[in-house]
Each structure stands twice: as C-alpha cells, then as structure tokens.
Amino acid sequence: MTQKEPLLSVKDLYVRVEDKEILKGVSLNIYPGEVHALMGRNGSGKSTLSYTLMGHPRYSVTRGEILYKGQDVTAMSPDERARLGIYLAFQYPVAIPGVSVSNFLRASLKAIRGKDVPVKEFRKVLKLEMQKLGIGDDFLSRYVNDGFSGGEKKRLEILQMALFKPQLAVLDETDSGLDIDALKTVAEGINSMTGPDLAVLLITHYQRILNYIKPQFVHVMHEGQIVLSGGSELAHQLEAHGYDWVTRELATAQT
User: Fold this and answer.
1) 150-164 and 180-193 are packed helices; what angle lies between their axes, rounded to 10 degrees?
2) Which of 64, 123, 207, 208 could join 12 via S-S bond, C-beta 3.0 to 4.6 A?
3) Is the separation of the CB atoms in 207 and 235 below 8 Å?
4) Structural contact between residues 49 and 38, judged by C-beta atoms closer than 8 angstroms
5) How many structural domains is the chain composed of?
C-alpha cells in the first residue's frame, strides 16, 4: 500500500437500522497516521458510522462501500475486520460478569493474532501499558466492566487498543462520562499511540477532548451526512457558535 492510497475509504455509504435510513451518502478518506474528529448532534449518525465500520450486524449497508487498505470489507464480520487492524472503542462498553480483565485481554489478543501469546510476553507488555494509563494490578482480577466507573471503562478500552495495536482506531465518544483527570489520562494514552502506524477517527460531541488530542481534520455530521469538513479551527467554531451555526450555514449555502 502506498501513501497515496487511503487506509480507510468510505464511499457514498447508505445505512439502515431496521426500517430507518440513518446514513445518507457518507464519504470519507483517512490516510495512515492521520487523526480525524467527527462531530455532530445526538442522532446525526456518528455512532451509526462507527458501528458500520466495525461490521455490527444490526446496521445494513444498502449502498456504497467500505475499503480498508484497498480491500472491500463491507461484507466482512467484526472479527475479520479486527484481525485486519480495525479497532472500535465503544461509547458504552458492555459488562461481562464472571470474566476477568486478564483472561479477556489475553483471549482477545490471541484471537486477533491467530496464535497463543506466551504468558511472560503478555504480562510484560500488559504491565507496561497499564502503568501508562495509571491502572493498578488489582484491575486484572476484576470482571470486565462489572461495577467499573466511567473512567475505568474508558481506560480499559484504551488499554485494549494499546495491546491490540490496530492501524485504524475508531473511538466512539471516548470522552463521554469522564472527569477532567480521567480525560487527560485517556487522551495521553491515545496520543502515545498515534503516529505513522495508527490512524484515528475520534467521534465526539464536544471540543474539550480536542484540547488534548489534536486532529488534522474535523468533520461535522448532520442528518446522516458529512456536511462540513476543515481543520482544527472548525471545532473551535462549533464550540463558539453551536450546532445551530451549522444549520444556518447549510441554509445559506442552499439559497
């Protein structure tokens, strides 16, 4: 793959959930190492795009395609996409009572690599990444997200990302439910991984996480479409004027 080819190319994507059309012609290119922010009101289609990129079966692609490294992944299952290097951090991570964090992480890493991970290697890498995120050893024996605070859930999402080493990370409202200290820690963890080997699509309502994670590109979603794109200054305009400003801009453009 050359640098001229996008890592991810979404082309004229239409998506339905049951009988409702949510995405209505989304197109987006992300190149290796880029950080993109996707912003918009609740219900604009941001999370639908994230789940569709990961292959959630509830979201039906009715038109368009998703190319990853030049390969059409539109019909692939989530586990196939994960093994190719796509990762999704959930807005609302699910609790798995009875499954320890340690066992979950090792089993997941084995599934992605397609082979077992030696215990010594796993423990060494895991401890290093836990230290970066301020996670204590007692975390490993707890059940996955069972009784976790919002900050703990998001730290676990970023810990998974650090272990799995994807080439494309889709972060669905990672800042949701975080206090300022947890937000800084999670942002630092993400920043430590960004670079030529990782592209990020950061989905958020608010500009605040963009104070810590600097995107090169900002996109605004409205009624199932990306209606505005620009640099980081676009996020500041949204913060200053609100999403009503987007509606007014669109109305002006149509007159």
Assistant:
1) 10
2) 64
3) yes
4) yes
5) 1
Q: 62 is in which domain, residue-wise?
A: 8-92+166-254
**Quick check: is 132 in a domain?**
no
Pairing of the two strands 168-172 and 143-144: unpaired
The model's pLDDT over 104-155, given as tens digits with 9 standing for 90+, comes to 999 999 999 888 889 999 999 999 999 888 889 999 999 999 999 888 898 8
Considering only CA atoms, which of 178, 181, 229, 177 is closest in space to residue 201? 229
DSSP secondary structure of 21-54:
EEEEEEEEEE-TT-EEEEE--TTSSHHHHHHHHH
Cα–Cα distance measured from residue 226 to residue 214, given in angstroms and rounded to the nearest whole number: 20
How far is C-alpha 172 from the chain's CA centre? Answer: 5
Which one, of 190, 187, 224, lies nearest residue 15 by Cα? 224
Burial of 65 (0-12, 13-18, 19+ CB in 10 A): middle
Q: Is residue 232 part of a domain?
A: yes
pLDDT tens, residue by residue, 175-213: 887 888 888 888 998 998 988 999 999 999 888 899 999
Residue 79 lies in a domain: yes
By CB atoms closer than 10 A (0-12, 13-18, 19+), residue 15 is buried
- Return d(Cα 171, Cα 103) in angstroms, integer: 23
What CATH number should be reported for the domain holding residue 246? Answer: 3.40.50.300
Q: Amino acid identity of 182?
A: A
Expressed in angstroms, the distance from the first to the final Cα of the chain is 42
Full-model pTM: 0.91
- Tokens standing for residue 64: 């368009």
Look at residues 65, 33, 42 and name the one whose alpha carbon lies nearest to residue 52. Answer: 65
